[in-house]
């Protein structure tokens, strides 16, 4: 169902703005993903007191280095439902590795701000966010990966230019360039 609809959604909506399909909403104790049927399903339940600090999703019509769509951490003032399509501006990247198929592999997350957000409308790069923002998110990912007993490593951070390069590379990979 979602897969068919997403097949017609371009990666970008206007200039640097991207379309983000939300799998897991901010504040959720559940991680959602798209099942092979095309429906959104619950894949993991987080421990009591642990919730997703921001909405998580992906950019349609992209292929990241790990073979999945380009992962997005979406910054908004509130939560949006799973299955929502939100226009956003990439502002940076959190560089990470986790174990995939028995070996460590990069699994970076592009950080983007919803274009409709009034609170974050002046944020252009990751360094524009409040002190401790990136650290908080890195700590969430560390906790999350420990919970599912998966080796994890933080590799650094990047600003908007690196996020845009990742987007362009993922678009080219999707097209087969």
From TrEMBL:
EC numbers for this chain: 3.6.1.1
Coiled coil: none
GO biological process: phosphate-containing compound metabolic process
Keyword Signal assigned: no
Top-level lineage group: Bacteria
GO (cellular component) term, any one: cytoplasm
GO terms assigned for molecular function: inorganic diphosphate phosphatase activity; magnesium ion binding
Alphabetized Pfam families for the sequence: Pyrophosphatase
Alphabetical UniProt keywords: Hydrolase, Magnesium, Metal-binding
Transmembrane segments: none
PANTHER family noted in UniProt: INORGANIC PYROPHOSPHATASE
Name of the molecule in the record: inorganic diphosphatase
